[in-house]
Structure prediction request, 107 residues.
Amino acid sequence: MSNITISGTWKTRRVRINGKYLSPIPSQKILNHSPDGFNWSYGGSGPAQLALAILLTQTDESTALYLHQYFKWDVVAKLPKSDFEISLDIRDYIHKKFNERKTEVSC
Prediction:
């Protein structure tokens, strides 16, 4: 089990994972969806950047790139348009999403 706690402050768009500040810069170097950084509560470029950044802290670059749009829609876009704190088992999410993709391909 790999539970993580993700929290964000709406006014500053700052995000923390397990209390540690998450910088957009590493994810922007891989795929720059949003030069302005993170956002959430909708399906745009800021949420895509946040999804990629979160996944990069928990898995390899290839997996993060592959799954970040799904994670954006499944998790980040559904966050409230305000401060938030959520806990989730990110490894379980990744495992389930890969299994869903395999099922879609084999059908």
